[in-house]
Automatic annotation (TrEMBL):
<dbReference type="Pfam" id="PF00512">
    <property type="entry name" value="HisKA"/>
</dbReference>
<keyword id="KW-0732">Signal</keyword>
<keyword id="KW-0902">Two-component regulatory system</keyword>
<dbReference type="InterPro" id="IPR011990">
    <property type="entry name" value="TPR-like_helical_dom_sf"/>
</dbReference>
<feature type="transmembrane region" description="Helical">
    <location>
        <begin position="401"/>
        <end position="418"/>
    </location>
</feature>
<keyword id="KW-1133">Transmembrane helix</keyword>
<keyword id="KW-0812">Transmembrane</keyword>
<protein>
    <recommendedName>
        <fullName>histidine kinase</fullName>
        <ecNumber>2.7.13.3</ecNumber>
    </recommendedName>
</protein>
<feature type="signal peptide">
    <location>
        <begin position="1"/>
        <end position="21"/>
    </location>
</feature>
<dbReference type="InterPro" id="IPR050736">
    <property type="entry name" value="Sensor_HK_Regulatory"/>
</dbReference>
<keyword id="KW-0808">Transferase</keyword>
<keyword id="KW-0418">Kinase</keyword>
<dbReference type="InterPro" id="IPR036097">
    <property type="entry name" value="HisK_dim/P_sf"/>
</dbReference>
<feature type="domain" description="Signal transduction histidine kinase dimerisation/phosphoacceptor">
    <location>
        <begin position="446"/>
        <end position="513"/>
    </location>
</feature>
<keyword id="KW-0472">Membrane</keyword>
<dbReference type="InterPro" id="IPR003661">
    <property type="entry name" value="HisK_dim/P_dom"/>
</dbReference>
<dbReference type="GO" id="GO:0000155">
    <property type="term" value="F:phosphorelay sensor kinase activity"/>
</dbReference>
Length: 653
């Protein structure tokens, strides 16, 4: 049935007013309405009458004439309320024609009226319509931009109708670009935003599009509630506004067509025929031509599913004259569909004659196709290919056998590839397990070495403290300078020992889980700048820090105090260190992995990694903190650019 789909796509550019241009009766009816309005006094009564006529006739060929009359009369009476309404109806005319330029002109008018009339609904609805017009011309990115801009304004001005219309247009743009899941998400978001004040036309349109997406993706059970609600909305509005019944005919036909497709998917062809009959009963002169042809197309699908080839061929013959006169671009596809149906029926000779007729109709086709396109069509539908069709039918059993073997080979290949994929997954998992075991073993070795070093580093300052304390307690008289020197040595070693022990205890609490990190939202760039300022101030001229990043501002979830402590340990040298440091902090945002990457070059903590056990423990504490938040901590002391520490932070959205 892909030929039918092609016909439907070709019809998206049809102007609804094409079939009505020469309708004499329509012209007489239109003139009588306008003459009646001119006979009325030049007051609000005339405006009200024209408003009612414009509202009841929102279909070609009357919509533009009555909307123009309303707008011009409102301008003459300087009534801004009705000027806004007339401009809205005129914009709707160009919305139906998918004319973005004319639509933009009237949207600009509506934007000027909005502050005066006190509502932005009319302006925002039609601004959203510009997006749909652009999408119909395959200008997808521009359509998405306009829809999002209209949505932003709708939220700003609290316009529910503008919001629904914007979601509708955004979903249409996604749908045209085959982003089906995104389109459905947007339509459902619009559905959830329905309020009692939402216009019926917007509600019905959204319900129709949701049902369409679910139907196209084969999810009939999800389509049914929205289709039923669409039907109920239409019945209610038709019952409430019988004088405007014709405004809803297109939607009613669309609803019946969806019921037909649903019934055929269920195999309930009797119900499908009932809905086809209901759709046909709605096909009056005012219906947009695209819906008239959609009914014929769904009828063809019905005949194809029920294998009623004779009826299908008869229907093609019935609609061909109309298609040839008004939709010449679809004529070749329709006739080719007839030939395909004849082939399915077994009438090869009839199919050959049908395609010969297609070739003979080249003069009519020249109006829609270039010479090159027509030549391509002749090559596609070459008569010699059709004559070979009889022989192809005789070989059908051989082809089926060949296809079966190919299918079997493909399945074997898929099984082989899947087996290889699983094998690689197993090898990868084993490698990860082995690496984890090696890492655990390395961690144990490191801990054992650290415990040995801790024992040694605690005894050394303790021996100094005890030794000098004994010297101070000996009966031998010491000089004041010696006592001061011994006391200073005792104080320094005691303070170093205290810091060392505190660091060990802090690391022990972290590893035992007794210290819990607190997650909070903080602005990381501002926090870094604050710690840089503190480090420069406390460095007494020995520390210079530069921040290199293209990130202006970024919120992360982490423990603010521990993060500040990490930065301080990397930027501030120990008190006894008299060296000068030129530190550079680089920050990058890896959007693919959603990581924030830090690299601190020239940090004193990396320089003394193996010289100072307190620094080594500080690295362990920092690494524990970074690992707790899903990051990696790395230290490199000997590099061309100097000692550095790098770490990453997982950004949780």
């Amino acid at each position: 049935m892909k030929h039918i789909v092609i016909i439907l796509l070709c019809l998206l550019g049809i102007r609804p007013d094409m079939l009505y241009a020469e309708d004499t009766h329509a012209q007489q009816y239109q003139d009588s309405i306008l003459k009646g309005s001119q006979a009325m006094p030049n007051t609000l009564a005339r405006l009200t009458y024209l408003r009612d006529m414009a509202y009841r006739h929102q279909y070609a060929p009357y919509n533009k004439a009555f909307s123009t009359a309303l707008y011009e009369e409102a301008c003459a009476q300087e009534n801004v309320i009705y000027e806004n309404l007339g401009a809205y109806y005129l914009a709707s005319c160009y919305d139906k024609r998918h004319d973005p330029d004319s639509l933009t002109y009237w949207v600009d008018k509506l934007k000027g009226y909005a502050p005066e009339v006190g509502t932005y609904d009319y302006y925002l609805e039609q601004k959203a319509a510009i997006s749909r017009a652009l999408a119909s011309k395959r200008q997808i990115e521009k359509a998405v931009y306009v829809a999002k801009e209209a949505l932003e304004e709708s939220l700003k001005y609290h316009s529910n109708n503008g919001e629904i219309a914007s979601y509708n247009s955004l979903g249409c743009a996604y749908g045209v670009s085959s982003r089906v899941d995104e389109a459905l998400e947007v339509f459902l978001k619009a559905y959830r935003r329905f309020t009692p004040q939402t216009k019926v036309s917007l509600r019905v349109d959204i319900l129709s599009r949701i049902a369409q997406v679910y139907g196209n993706t084969g999810r009939d059970s999800l389509r049914i509630p929205y289709l039923q609600q669409m039907d109920e909305e239409l019945q209610e509005v038709v019952k409430r506004e019988p004088e405007a019944r014709k405004n809803w005919s297109n939607f009613e036909i669309d609803c019946q067509i969806k019921y037909v497709l649903l019934s055929m998917n269920r195999g309930d062809f009797h119900v499908a025929q009932e809905h086809i009959d209901k759709a046909k009963a709605l096909l009056e002169d005012h219906v947009d031509p695209v819906f008239w042809l959609n009914v014929q197309l769904v009828q063809l699908q019905y005949y194809a599913r029920t294998k009623e080839y004779d009826k299908s061929i008869a229907l093609v013959d019935e609609v061909t004259p109309i298609v040839l006169n008004h939709y010449v671009s679809t004529f070749a596809t329709l006739i080719n569909y007839k030939a395909s149906t004849q082939i399915n029926k077994g009438d090869i000779d009839g199919a050959i004659e049908t395609r010969r007729y297609l070739i003979r109709a080249q003069d009519s086709l020249d109006n829609a196709f270039s010479t090159n396109q027509l030549q391509q069509m002749k090559e596609i539908y070459h008569i010699d290919d059709l004559l070979m069709e009889k022989q192809k039918i005789k070989d059908i059993n051989y082809k089926r056998g060949f296809l079966f073997l190919v299918t079997l080979l493909v399945l074997v290949l898929i099984f082989y590839l899947y087996t290889r994929y699983l094998s690689r997954k197993i090898v990868t998992a084993e490698k990860i397990t082995a690496d984890a075991a090696m890492q655990a073993e390395a961690d144990n070795v490191t801990k054992d070495r650290l415990q040995s070093e801790i024992s040694h580093d605690i005894r050394t300052p303790l021996n100094v403290v005890v030794g000098f304390a004994e010297l101070l307690t000996e009966p031998k008289e010491l000089t004041a300078e010696a006592k001061m020197e011994y006391g200073k040595m005792i104080q320094e070693n005691a303070e170093n020992l205290l810091k060392y022990v505190n660091s060990i205890l802090e690391l022990s609490r972290l590893e035992s889980g007794k210290t819990q990190y607190m997650q909070e939202e903080c602005e990381v760039i501002a926090l870094c700048r604050k710690e840089i300022a503190t480090a420069i101030e406390s460095g007494n001229g020995h520390v210079a820090v530069r921040l290199k990043t293209d990130i202006e501002s970024l919120m992360i979830s982490t423990d603010k105090n521990w993060f500040s402590s990490l930065l301080t340990s990397l930027l501030v040298p120990v008190e006894s260190d008299e060296d000068s440091y030129n530190i550079v902090i680089r920050i990058k945002h890896d959007r693919e992995k959603n990581l924030l990457l830090f690299k601190v070059v020239g940090t004193p903590l990396a320089k003394v990694r193996f010289e100072n056990k307190t620094a080594l423990i500080r690295h362990e504490i920092n690494a524990h903190f970074i690992h707790a938040f899903g990051g990696i901590y790395k230290v490199q002391a000997d590099t061309a650019e100097g000692p550095w520490v790098s770490f990453s932070i997982q950004i949780r959205e």
